[in-house]
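Hey, sorry to bother you again with one of my protein questions. A protein chain has come my way and I'm curious about its shape. It would help a lot if you went through both lines with me. I owe you a coffee for this, so here goes:
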Amino acid sequence: MKTNRKTDILIIGAGPAGYVAAIYAAKKGKKVILVDGLWVGGTCLNAGCIPTKALVKSAELYQEILASEEKGISVKDLKLDLNKIIDNKDSIKDKLVNGIKFLLEKYQVEVIEAYATFLNNKEVLIKDKDLVLTADDILIATGSKTKHLPVEGIDNPLVLDSEKILELRTLPKTLTVIGGGIIGMEFAFIYANLGVKVNVIEFLPRILMNLDREFSLRLIRFAKQLNIDIYTNSEVKRLEGNNKSIKTYFVRKNQEEYLESDYVLEAVGRGPNINGLGLENTDVIFDSRSGIKVDEQLRTNVDNIYAIGDVNNIMQLAHVASHQAIVAVDSILGKNHKINYDLIPSVVFTSPTIATVGISEEKAKERSLDYEVVKVPFSANGKAIILDSEAGFIKLLREKSTKKLIGAQIFGKEAENLIATYTLAITNNLTAGNIKDTVFAHPTIQELVHESALGLEKEAIHFVD
């Protein structure tokens, strides 16, 4: 016999969109039920953003130690233990998951560990619980899932996706990465930094196609230094292997080639996770590839149903999902505002790091914008030299007529931190003059922000503008 219950807000999915929406709504006085059959924290926290950045830290630390002798530090008998690296990754993940669970409990969010499926526009069945929930408003936050290539041999046990590779405890000698996007290139650099011979096969003309051409080409130079070979304009056709190695066959320049490696990482992107949701039982407009259609407040065509995070496929970033959660809950509360997706920062955690916000120079040209640009070398900054990041640089754009900053792209160490300042400036319509009048601490890499503003004003001190 099924039990029927009602709540103010029902949230399906406990990732960065779902748990943020739950906590935010509960703090606003709403009674919230959060349902997830897999994990609190979602892919990002359990098998994505956080675990991979823990690996990035370990891999880059290993490289720093290898190069430490020139800094006056000698390390003998250096050993790399992938088991301990994975244990450290898991420890960080568990600590953060427990923190989220604590907050959900503190704000009296009821968490049900089960899968949910829509019966109709108003009723949701909680599987294996004999429970039917209704709510004034329902938020779908089921995230995304790994895409797979429809090629022969993709189901070979030596083919890993971006989640399975996080549990790999034996360091391979060779790794072939299928996909030169953000996920593929981050893992390529992680394993190359750990001493693995890495190959990257990319279908498109270049890696990281969403970045300015200058940035992706610059990264290739660093990839070569780490013994990463990149094959672009290459189409994977099939995989063949035994229990010891696997061959990836691909076509490049009308010729079939193959690469043999210990493992293959399939990193061809992620798609909306809507299987099993029962959306076909509702009036919600959706597509298995493009996700659930929403308006500016993240509302679907059904008034009381919202879709937030990767499941709407607007922009697959955890920080976007969390902000969409706040926008959706605010909409429920009668406060309507929207997100300007041009102002979303993005970071690629390769070595060096790449970070962007706003409009790139290529986009400015496509839109026929009248703009000015300055390129600031990291070699103009003392802290950057200390961090061995002299090859880094910043591109900063402004609109000529208004002098407002419209875009920033950073290549180099601490780019993930530098981009926050530019995001704040661009979001608040600041000019180079506003930044020029701001004092930055010395010696810090943040001084490059000040130097870039001076550069736009043709008043740079530490480089030729």
